[in-house]
């Protein structure tokens, strides 16, 4: 299991027993489904539920940070057919929180989805689970069976007038299916390609019906918000950045893993929780929000607190909360080459700037890394990213562009060195050792 | 209404309009590739990015809805920068092989690169290569040129009705392809060539044969089905090289069927008749025109003198021009014969003399799209009238309910509200059931003749659908017109339309299905109709533009009768072995591309056209040949100097639509009786066999639609006969005539029905299109 060290654990309360604590009875023993029961028994109105979520300032945990309560309130009241969809297509490199949520505590997500369905008036829901975590998909199916058997899902839930059923759907590993409308297309059996918006899913979603789609972590937070109240949840974090958040810390730290901390926790604290830098080496750079977020150099990052506003102010994004830590052994050109390859391979191919531009970026970065860079390449890369950003249906073009721009911006000298000397500023031997797979001097 | 300002010009547009629509209304061009007015919005090419006031990013004009007070800038720095950026991206992986690309000179990418691109690119990396695909005999691919606009994909899914193309793989690896191992087989496939904004999809028959700027272009009209699609015929050195659609929203919109687009290959066929020929002592001899015309006129005069005028018959093709049909009937009548007909595949002529006017569509073609309930009776709709099927497909998507009563359940790729699939002999009875059921729902009295029928569940379902509409249309297809009880079907359709307060009409089979009546190419009292002329042999025949063994209701009978006739004068652009057998003189006349003329389409619209090319060899326009024959035979009133003179006389002026259109009947008794014992033949006329021109179009003859006729039956029939799909069977039509055909499964056929296509040499021997067949394993 992942290494866990939390302050004010909320989402991760159920993780304590590892794989032994995920089932329905464990969840109920932790107070699970009590909020659903309360809502149904007290006949709480839909507006009251939404108001509570709004009060919590819960912002979408998938990356965009859109206020969840506001999103729910966009759902047309009168529509006869509506859907709730959970996005567990966790494909962003560096992100591995949702799979642990579903692995150790799938019922919090299920309960959150049921409450969401109640609030927006949906009768049917889907959880779209990334194709490369098939065991998690199987666990979620088991959890659904348990919830159905216990009457939390199905017709007239717990004897109320409310009916809702939930299904798991697994993808096949395409990054683009994590884009919400690409995901909806994929559930519909089509090629996963984002739709032009507007209309947004709240008006034209799954099968063209109004749909609320949120990230797994967003849904998982709902029972806790309903339990402690929106206000108390908000107060866990800081204004406009309510609650706690899971951070997937990876890279050159001693204890990579998922850490739940209140919004606004200093990055230094998070780094400390993750065991500090591996081998006591110096921090070089951090990608604070998943591979598409702009990289930040060490000194900037050490001043940041972990919340949407602070990271945005520093010039990056909190994103999905995937914190990729890089130490001084990292060649930034090589790191960028790997990232650019990912976006080149994962562009869906729909929009011209992304389809053509992501390959262009990768090829140029690849050339630089392999000693074939030209002095004009850095300006070229900036120009190509400029031509890609904001010109496509979804944000993948931006996601491909941000790393390139930020790596060049903050580590330009390293790129220039590469171009001029046809080799790395960071000694390859140092890189090898830093990777953690090789010992110094070993062949 | 919303107000929008584009580059400083303001305009009012409807709610729901997009920025690109508004711009086009203003005459402001916004560059685009994926956008097409007839297809859904994809917004993927990003070429149409424009600046919208208050929007942080450039917006795609094709997908951005106009809001009130919106201000759009198509030439601002932001817009121009975006357009240049997209153009550079489009070109980095494009091969830029314009000098060897068929699209060169008419390429949207080329044009827009000049208009909106930079003069060079900074791209110096390797370019992508995409494997080509086999889409069949009509569409050629160079997929490396593809810019993934997905127009072709959306066309097959949305217009043709079945998604035969898709985009596989992601990102730069994305490829447009058909299903693995499949080709694009829709009867509308050629349109993807027009839609492709680059040279990825080009015309296989036309490929590498000319540069577009070498071609002269002429407007023309399709000589095939009754729609009268508008064409652009392109020629080089007086040879037709290519046919493209001429947009006409009221008729073919911006589409063409493959038949209309590729049939031009037949114009250049080696079977073209290029010199007059006469048969002397059993041997054919090429002769000069004056010899041939003398020979023909003497032959006709001799027969008239010896056997009387009634011994001459005229069998005219419904694909002939109005002028040709008019002159042919005038010539025959001048000789004293009333035996004139152009309705070659018709078998029931009992409404002759009882018609109130010229039978027609009963509405404008564009009105079809406005019907909310439609019943199609007796039609292989998708193949016989692909573009009308397309209109109904779009209507069905908008909520119109389409039903069909027919002998086969071919997939129309239209969502049907109800259907009744019955043996051909049952069509009148089931239509009568629909009439009875509709009358019951509407609370109006039904004709006593239909009172006795028992309404089946299928007929009831059709009736319920029809009765729930407010703008109903009943469309009688080719099969209904060829049916032995066509008169009853027409009368019942009329009753149905009255009960529903709707319209009814005929889907014109041929280019001049209406024009033939207007040209008076039908017998008056005392004359013989097409079927009677062949059943009661004449001494002499004038045949215009038809291959009677393939174009008649009973090809075998036509062949037998003509072979015995003393003199058969054939005016035809083509020669065939059959013609050489039965004709006495062959006069080479122009196909539609080499003559001026007029087609009156199924809605009664008069569409004239000029010759697109000079006549081939010694071919002459048929109207000129008929005029000279008239003179030689001393018939009065043949002093025409131009085809326009002929048209003026035929139409009494130059109307846009002909007058006297009326589907009403006087005093037709219903004949609901059905007495078919044994296996009924259901004969379709496959679209690429339907007329002499298309039969000679090489590429079309390689398509799946041109597969050789088979004996199609449902599973129960195959089992009953001890047949398996693929078995060779001997199909007989009584007497000694048989055809050996392959048995095939067609699950949509009713019991006791064997479907055997007509208009093909393999099945000519079986005779009448409606008959009883025997089937046995070989």
Straight-line distance between termini of chain A: 32 Å
Q: Report the uncertain regions of chain B.
A: none
* DSSP E strands of chain A, number: 11
Class of secondary structure makeup of chain A: alpha/beta
Please give the most extensive interface between any two protein chains, plus how many residues each contributes: A-B, 34 and 38 residues
User: What is the spatial order of strands in the main beta sheet of chain B?
Assistant: 14-13-24-23-22-15-16
Strand order of the largest sheet of chain A: 6-5-11-8-9
What's the short version?
The complex is a heterodimer of chains A (443) and B (778). By secondary structure, chain A is α/β, with parallel strands linked by helices.
Question: Could you explain how this protein is built, in words?
Answer:
The complex is a heterodimer of chains A (443) and B (778). Chain A is an alpha/beta fold. Chain A has helices at 24-29, 34-41, 46-56, 68-73, 97-104, 106-120, 134-149, 180-187, 216-228, 230-236, 267-273, 298-302, 308-313, 332-346, 352-369, 377-388, 396-421, 428-434; strands at 83-88, 124-129, 165-170, 211-215, 244-251, 257-262, 265-266, 283-287, 296-297, 305-306, 322-327. Chain A has 18 helices and eleven strands. In chain A, a hairpin with an 8-residue loop joins β8 (283-287) and β9 (296-297). In chain A, α5 runs parallel beside α7. The radius of gyration of chain A is 22 Å and the shape is globular. The two termini of chain A are 32 Å apart. Mean pLDDT of chain A is 94; it is low at 1-5. With 778 residues, chain B is α/β, with parallel strands linked by helices. Chain B has a seven-stranded mixed sheet with strand order 14-13-24-23-22-15-16. In chain B, strands 28-30-29-32-27-31 form a six-stranded mixed sheet. In chain B, α2 crosses α3 (108-116) and α12 (427-442) packs across α14 (457-467). The model of chain B has no long low-confidence stretch (mean pLDDT 96). Chains A and B meet through α14, α15 and α16 of A and α2 of B.
